[in-house]
């Protein structure tokens, strides 16, 4: 007998990944129908993919400086026509200089780089981290990756030694974590985020999950934090970051800080785990924080850069055992290297034009335009949710998402059950069918028992689609009241 | 206690990947020393990385047509200045048309694509397969991947259900296979290639390995074939391809055909597994070959394209159960999508300019120039090996490698043992130290007991480095005679 669902890797079968699940597939079918003009029966004329943080699929334009440099990296022969670039195509001299510098560092972007990335790019990332955190960073501890997802995959592959290994994962969470743990047959130790404290971390809850897991014989090795939050949109206050590190230090846990939304912050400011780790180390000259292990991840996919199709990212390790680092090196070597053009994009993200550089003005204008646009869209969507019956939603803090609670009538829950769906799945499916708007039900991320949510990006332009959600919601509530 | 080599994933610890192992690391240290001018003590003035098939790190120039299109995909604003592109930068009109077409298909290359790839690119690959094989291909069975390595990783993750799952792997092999099987804790069932038949497959040997594994309780699920061969450089004759498929059909094995070197063929021609599968299905109208499962992989990394830094590739499935395909879909979804610029590069590789297109002449000239250069270098290296004492090497057939047998004196074996190395590792380390040339010992790929080999690419330009190998070898033999 050949391969069947019953004899293949059951860990893969067990993995769940709702972000690109049934709803997403159905929305793509609608999109295909619409593009073929074969959609007379559909009550909408466009599909809005609010299920994935995919800025450039919607309205976000790439940043000119970045794409100009990339075009030169792809075709270095253009550098032989500097006058044409400058005079006829509007390329600034700093674009040309940067391209030359990156080409010198990487050789051809068509060549494999060293397994962990182009050395000069790792140095530039280290300089960025030093500017960001006020503490030096070591380029040799930086690993370029194909987006942050690939970095998470590497770290979990190395950390997870079998079903007894437990990883503390926030609930709700981005399902990359639970899916990867399922594939690795390791144990997810869920801890609930505190919806009543703006989806912050609650040390009591974390400790309770940790203690229960230990009591069940699980060897808890790491804690995952997503800050700013996905799907929650939370931006953690400094004291939450500190408390998590203190707890991790006490229990010898690796901290995996998923900080891909670090520039998508609308309230307060971003507090990096790396900076807080160094502060704690300063505060404890006895060395009691010196062996705390932190892996922090970043990506070109989000923020104002929004270049997810390029699959660029990196992670930085602090406090890891050199023998463990050697295994991480070997693991990434097997896949050879991260895409080199994506590596260059990381460099452009962490080292943008500065005041006085010829490209600065346009860069700043584009960057701020994207940032303000996201903030305005988040506010508009939030206002709409505020007016919807039974919907509760925190003020937008960060990332690209809102994650409202929806209180649905009992009749809706019954109708969902009859269809073999959870009530939030049922709601999101009806929303898609009625409006063409694709969001992800809270059950795809995990949620506290007896609560329902959905996650929507606020990337789509205009206000019309927000109006359709409001209208749909009212009709849905009326129908199932 | 935090993470240590003893408590992390022991499957990762067990994995071996020599291509970027100790020798490669040491060669990079030499390179760094040389670039800092700090190498008075080194007996060479450059490092030659003949350990990795990395064409553009050495002499191979990117193909102009490909890079021109990519530059426009990265900066679509250039398309607004078509006159400048054509008149001042020498871009042909087909370059511009192709860029527009790909942009229409992918949207922005900075956006995630569908999980399995941009639909229009999958259609173009299907058309290529039809032209290549003379049989139609189904775009929905094509999965874009980040290089072929990522495709292999996906397939093995889905197929391998635990330690009892066995995968037939050729020896010698590209260590991606054994390393991934180690990480997945599945069983590698090695079968020896036949050095005396130009490293072809030998059905008797395969059957013997298969029977032994079955007798030991291993559930053998798949057979890996690398054609043209890595590290062997073999190009399989049609009858070998047929025999493997007949065997796999009889035993219900998935055939994983790693065909990344399909254009690197110097003797005879490339015979694709897909075409032979369709021929066998035609020959057997009783349907006895209809459920044979084939996954064939290709990549932009090798061939005359040589764009490995872009991490582009794809695999095509034939005969897979739809439920299993759904799991493959989910697995690739977790990592979101292959790099979109790499996907576009796949399209450019499989659909190059044709006779009559404005870019055709230059494309053809560059393509043939690279092909002939590789063939000449292979021949020069082969001639050198022919004259070296105790070295035996087949005529170059395909891929980017020669894999000579080396017969070393007993004294060399003793000296190696004293250093805790195998004799081939010892030889390769001395070669690196003496000449700056980095090759990979045969033990990194597996080799028949009591034989020694090394793998070298023939990508490096010039003949000087070949001369250094000859000189080193003579001195080595004299020293240990």
What does this 3D model show about the protein?
The structure is a homodimer of 481-residue chains. The model of chain A has no long low-confidence stretch (mean pLDDT 95). Chain A has helices at 10-14, 22-35, 64-74, 82-87, 93-106, 119-133, 147-159, 176-183, 203-215, 238-251, 273-283, 322-334, 340-350, 360-386, 410-418, 423-435, 464-480, and strands spanning 48-49, 142-145, 165-171, 187-192, 219-226, 254-258, 294-299, 313-318, 391-392, 401-402, 405-406, 437-438, 440-441, 454-457. The longest helix of chain A has 27 residues, at 360-386. With 481 residues, the first copy, chain A, is of the alpha/beta class. Helices cover 44% and strands 12% of the residues of chain A. Chain A is globular and about 65 Å long. Chain A contains 17 helices and 14 strands. In chain A, helix 6 (119-133) runs parallel beside helix 13 (340-350), helix 10 (238-251) packs across helix 11 (273-283) and helix 16 packs across helix 17 (464-480). In chain A, strands 2-8-7-6-5-3-4 form a seven-stranded mixed sheet, with helices on both faces. The interface between A and B is large, with 94 and 94 residues.
């Amino acid at each position: 007998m050949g391969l069947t669902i019953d004899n293949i890797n059951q860990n893969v079968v067990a993995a769940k990944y709702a972000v690109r699940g049934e709803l997403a597939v159905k929305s793509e079918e609608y999109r295909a129908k619409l593009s073929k003009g074969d959609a007379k029966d559909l009550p909408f004329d466009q599909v809005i993919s609010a299920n994935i943080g995919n800025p450039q699929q919607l309205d976000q334009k790439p940043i000119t400086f970045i794409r100009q440099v990339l075009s030169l990296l792809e075709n270095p022969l253009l550098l032989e026509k500097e006058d044409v670039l400058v005079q006829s195509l509007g390329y600034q001299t700093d674009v040309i200089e940067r391209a030359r510098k990156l080409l010198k560092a990487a050789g051809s972007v068509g060549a494999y780089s060293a397994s962990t990335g182009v050395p000069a790019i790792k140095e530039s990332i280290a300089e960025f981290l030093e500017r960001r955190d006020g503490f030096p960073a070591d380029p040799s501890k930086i690993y370029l990756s194909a987006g942050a997802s690939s970095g998470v995959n590497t770290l979990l592959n190395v950390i997870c030694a079998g079903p007894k290994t437990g990883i503390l994962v926030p609930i709700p969470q981005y399902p990359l974590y639970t899916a990867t743990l399922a594939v690795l047959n390791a144990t997810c130790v869920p801890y609930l985020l505190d919806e009543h404290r703006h989806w912050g971390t609650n040390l009591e809850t974390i400790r309770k999950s940790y203690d229960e897991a230990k009591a069940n014989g699980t060897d808890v090795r790491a804690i995952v934090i997503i800050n700013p939050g996905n799907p929650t949109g939370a931006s953690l206050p400094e004291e939450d970051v500190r408390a998590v590190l203190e707890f991790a230090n006490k229990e010898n846990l690796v901290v995996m800080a998923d900080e891909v939304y670090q520039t998508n912050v609308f309230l307060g400011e971003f507090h990096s785990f790396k900076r807080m780790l160094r502060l704690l180390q300063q505060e404890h000259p006895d060395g009691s924080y010196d062996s705390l292990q932190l892996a922090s991840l970043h990506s070109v996919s989000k923020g104002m850069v929004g270049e997810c199709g390029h699959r660029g990212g990196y992670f930085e390790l602090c406090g890891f055992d050199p023998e463990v680092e050697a295994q991480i090196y070997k693991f990434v070597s097997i896949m050879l290297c991260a895409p080199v053009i994506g590596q260059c994009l990381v460099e452009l993200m962490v080292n943008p034009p500065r005041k006085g550089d010829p490209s600065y003005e346009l860069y700043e204008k584009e960057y701020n335009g994207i940032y303000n646009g996201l903030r305005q869209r988040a506010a508009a969507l939030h206002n709409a949710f505020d007016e919807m019956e039974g919907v509760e939603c925190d003020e937008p803090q960060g990332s690209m998402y809102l994650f409202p609670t929806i209180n649905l009538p009992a009749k809706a829950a019954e109708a969902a059950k009859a269809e073999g769906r959870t009530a939030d799945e049922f709601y999101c499916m009806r929303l898609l069918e009625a409006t063409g708007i694709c969001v992800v039900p809270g059950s795809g991320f995990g949620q506290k028992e007896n609560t329902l949510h959905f996650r929507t990006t606020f990337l789509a332009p205009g206000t019309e689609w927000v109006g359709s959600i409001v209208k749909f919601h009212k009709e849905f509530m009326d129908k199932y009241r």
